[in-house]
Specification:
The protein is mainly alpha-helical and about 140 residues long. The chain has two domains: about 90 residues, Arc Repressor Mutant, subunit A; about 40 residues, no CATH class. Helices cover about 55% and strands about 10% of the residues. It is built from six helices and two strands. It has a two-stranded antiparallel sheet. The longest helix has 16 residues.
Length: about 140
């Protein structure tokens, strides 16, 4: 386990988050949670590779997921390191709950269309409500 932590910290200490737009992207949040869930390792030794996203964007979102308590993990900031490093160990209960609501591509895309047709962005709580409403409509649950 310590070897895994050392590898994760080595990679993440190389990530420079300066100059990165500080915008949360829920598509990336969902993709990271899916990667963490499917990982056979107790701890992600390396940055989850998410097609279309930079290492910096993924690292920033790992920090957000850790802060939101969607993942168990760790952050460190070494001497001379300008930004903290993050790594994921596992999903938490709230992380699993969100991912269960957002897992299905059809439900996810319908929720995004529903939200996008009305507002530019929403909170995680509102997104979960929309995902639940879309799921209920697909299941025929009032």
């Amino acid at each position: 386990m310590l070897a895994r932590l050392a590898l994760a910290e080595k990679w993440l200490s190389a990530v420079d988050l300066r100059g990165l737009p500080m915008k949360r992207n829920m598509d990336l949040v969902r993709q990271i949670l899916l990667k963490i869930e499917e990982s056979p390792e107790l701890c992600l030794n390396d940055n989850p590779v998410i097609s279309g996203w930079s290492d910096q964007e993924v690292a920033y979102h790992l920090g957000l997921l850790l802060e939101a308590k969607f993942i168990n993990g760790h952050s460190t900031q070494g001497i001379g390191q300008k930004m903290p490093s993050y790594f994921a160990i596992s999903l938490t209960w709230p992380g699993h709950e969100f991912l269960d609501a957002a897992r299905d591509d059809t439900v996810w895309n319908k929720a995004k269309v529903t939200i996008g047709s009305k507002v530019a962005s929403v909170s995680v709580d509102i997104l979960k409500d929309v995902l639940a409403a879309v799921t209920k409509s697909y299941l025929g649950v009032p």
